[in-house]
Each structure stands twice: as structure tokens, then as C-alpha cells.
Amino acid sequence: MSPKTLRIGLVSLLISLMLLGCQEQPAEVAEESVVEAPAGATPEVPQEATLPAAPPGVTIVADGRLLIREPVVPLSFVVGGRLLTLNVSEGDEVAAGDLLATIDDAALQNTVANAAANLAIAQANLAAAQVSPTEAQIAAAEAQIAVAEAGVASAQAAHDRLFAPLDYASIIEAD
Q1: How far is CA 31 from CA 28, 56, 165, in A?
Q2: I need a labelling partner for 28 at 20 to 30 A (CA). Which of 35, 80, 120, 166 fits?
Q3: CB 162: neighbour CB atoms within 10 A?
Q4: Residues in Cβ contact with 154 at an 8 Å cutoff, skipping those fewer than 6 apart
């Protein structure tokens, strides 16, 4: 064997050993105890289990099933918005009528203001059309006012729903 081939082989062997030493060693796994249940029996499920804290840098891998104590109650609301405050934390008990959160209503206020501005424009157009009116101009201006009034009513209703009692929020219980 030539010295060059021998050197390449030794360098390759050293690099392989160094890389092998850099591998993460798996954490020791406790022996698994398996208990056979009689045929047709339902296994007893513990109500609560506490896991020991793992030392830093150690990952514990375990098989099991996570069961929640009570069903999750999803909430749905009539209107959406940016959440300003959240008055409860996970695990807190709440009662009917408790304020859970507040939502920013700026977008709804802007919608109401825009609808009111459109109504003012429609009223101005009607007033201008009445100076030298034609039937078509008056009809168009009146239609524009009706549309603007409907927009104001719709925007105001959306704003009012945001501040309505909790009756408008629905709690859907999981089965």
C-alpha cells in the first residue's frame, strides 16, 4: 500500500470517529411494564398523572393518551375585531355575565362614520337636484338617500351587536 493511500485511509478513519463521537446519545428509557387486561375488560384510566421534570437537555418520549377533564367550550361571536383585553386565563372558572374580553370597535365606528358621510353626500345631491330638478335627478337622489340610510342602519346595527348583551354570543357545548 502506498503511503498516500495509507494517509487518506487514516484521515478518513479519524474523521469518521470524530463524527461518531459528536452524535447525541439517546436518553435511557425506563423498562416498560405491560399488564394484560382480561378479555372484554375496560382498562382503568387514571384521572391525573404527574410526570417528573426532565433534566436540561434530556427529552422524554412516552406513549399514552391525553384526556381532558371537561369538554372544551368553543365560543363564537356575532362580530369580529382585534382583541384589546383578555380578562381570563386558561383554567379560570367563569360565570354567566362575566366579561371575558374586549374587542376594538374602531372598524365598526369607521363603518358607521362612512355610512353617515355617504348619507350626507346623498342629501346634498338631492338638495342640488331640487334647485333645477328633473324627475330623473330627483328619483336618483332619493334612491341614493335610501341606499345611504340603509348603509347607516346596517353599520349602526353591526356596531350595536358588538355591545349587545351576552345573549348574542353563543356557547356551543361539545358532546
Answers
A1: 9, 22, 57
A2: 35
A3: 19
A4: 115
What are 107's three cell numbers?
372598524
Distance, in Å, from the CA atom of 129 to the CA atom of 160, rounded to the nearest integer, reads: 34
Query: What does R_g of the chain's alpha carbons equal in angstroms?
Result: 35
Determine the Cα–Cα distance for residues 77 and 168; give it in Å rounded to an integer.
Answer: 7
Kindly state the cell numbers that stand for 102: 374586549
Buried b / exposed e over 81-115, threshold 16 CB at 10 Å, is eeeeeeeeeeeeeeeeeeeeeebebebbeebbeeb
CA dihedral sign, ordered 127, 130, 131, 132? positive
pLDDT per residue as tens digits for the range 65-81: 766 666 666 666 666 77
Q: What is the 3-state secondary structure (H, E, C) of 104-118?
A: CCHHHHHHHHHHHHH
